[in-house]
Amino acid sequence: MILHPAIPSMLCPACSTALLLYPEHLGPVAIQLYNKMSAEQQKEWILSAGEKRITISFYTYERILNPRFLRDKLFLDWNPLHVLGRIYVATEGINAQLSVPSEHMEAFKSTLDSIDFLNGIRLNVAIEQDDLSFLKLTIKVRPKIVADGLKDWEADPNKGGVHLDALEFNEIISSKDTILIDMRNHYESEVGHFEGAVLPDVDTFRESLPRLVDEFSSQKEEKNIVMYCTGGIRCEKASAYFKNNGYQKVYQLNGGVIEYVRQIKEQGVENKFHGKNFVFDARMAERVSDEVISTCHQCGAPCDTHVNCANIACNLLFIQCDECGAKMESTCSDACLAVTHLPEEEQVRLRKGKKAKKRYFSKGRAGHLLQKETVSQSTAK
Predict the structure, then answer these.
(1) What is the pLDDT of residue 380?
(2) Looking at the predicted structure, is the pLDDT value of residue 4 above 50?
(3) Which of 6, 135, 144, 189 allows an S-S link to 193, with CB 3.0 to 4.6 Å?
(4) Does residue 93 share a domain with residue 44?
(5) What is the mean pLDDT of residues 38-48?
C-alpha cells in the first residue's frame, strides 16, 4: 500500500510508522494532515458555494497492521476531494460516517477501490440528505471501531449471525419463535424502533451485551435471536458474542435500519419500523414513518426531535419540542438558560478548567428532565 499516489512511502522497519520519501532535490515537504477551516468556516463555504453533498457510511472488520498509516493515507486522499466526516480506524477495521460532494463521488469511490479490503465495499446512503451533516474531516486511530468492552476472542465478527435482507427480516420477526433485539442505546430506540423489539434500557453498547446474553440464556437453543442496529456494525460483534455464548439461531439485519429503509422503498416491502432512525451526525435522525412515538423531555408533548443544550458547557442531548425550544432558547434548564445570557467571556471563564459532569452525558436521563418510562420490551407481538 502506498500513502498517496504522488508521494512514495514505506514503513519504518523499527517502529512501523509511515515514512514519506521525497527526491533529494526537493528537501522537506509539509503534508497537511489537519483541517485548515473551522466547522463554522466549512459551513459558510458549503452554503456560499451551493455544494451538494451525499451522506454515506461504511464499515468493515479487517485486520489492519498499521492503523496510523491507513489514517494518514485516507486523510491525504480525501481532504483534496473536500470529504468531511468522522472515521475510526483500528487494528480490527474501519468505521466511517462521511459527507462527500456529489461531483467527487466517483473519485471518492476510486480511493476506496485502491485499497484491497475496501474495494467494492457497500456504502450505506443516508435516507435523508443534508449538505451540513458533517463539517470537519476527523479520522482517529482507536483501540476499536466500536466500543464493545469485549476481548477479541469473545466476539469474532467473522463468526457472527446470518445476515437478513428486509424481506427475510420481516418474515422472521413475525414468528412467535423469534426474539427481536434492538442493539442500540435507549435514546436511539426512544424515537424509533421495530414493532415487538426488546429495547434495552442502556446508555452504552458495551453495557447491553452481557445483560442481554444473560436475559435470554434459557432460550438460547430454541428461539431465533434476531438483532438490528443503525447501520449493521454493532450487530456484527453482538451476533458473534451471542454465538460464542452458546446461542444457536442468531440473525442480524444486514446493513441495519439504513439499508432496510432503502430496500423497502425500492422493493415495496412492508415497513415495520416506527418513528425515526437516530443517526450520529448533525441531522440527529432520519424519519422512517410519520409516527411520533416519543415525547418532549420538558413538557411531555408528542415530539421526537433531539437537540443539544445551547449552553456549551452542558451540551446535554435531549428531546425538545418547538414550543419549549422557543421558551427555553434551546437550553435544558433555567440554570443553563441563565448561563447563555452571560457575556461570552464570562461563559468561557466558567467553563475553564471544569470537567463535564456525568449528567452531561446522560442523554435524556438528567434528573431535571421528564423521564420516559423504563422499557425492557416494546409492544408484544
Answers:
(1) 36
(2) no
(3) 189
(4) yes
(5) 83
Total domains in the fold of the chain: 3
Q: Taking residues 97-103, what's their average pLDDT? A: 95
Confidence band of 20 (pLDDT split at 50, 70, 90): very low
Task: Give the mean model confidence (pLDDT) for residues 12-36.
Answer: 47
Residue 37 to residue 14: CA distance in whole angstroms: 35
| Residue 121 within a domain | yes
Residues with a catalytic annotation lie at 229
Q: How far apart are CA 305 and CA 317, in angstroms?
A: 10
The CATH number assigned to the domain holding 58 equals: 3.30.70.100
What is the per-residue pLDDT for 176? 94
- By three-state DSSP, how is residue 125 classified? strand
Domain enclosing residue 81, as ranges: 9-18+38-141
CA-CA distance, 63 to 70, in Å (whole number)? Answer: 12
CA separation for the pair 172, 223 (Å, rounded)? 11
Whether residue 262 is found in the same domain as residue 345 = no
Are 108 and 166 in a shared domain?
Answer: no
Quote the cell numbers at residue 204.
452504552
The span from the CA of 141 to the CA of 247, in Å, is 33
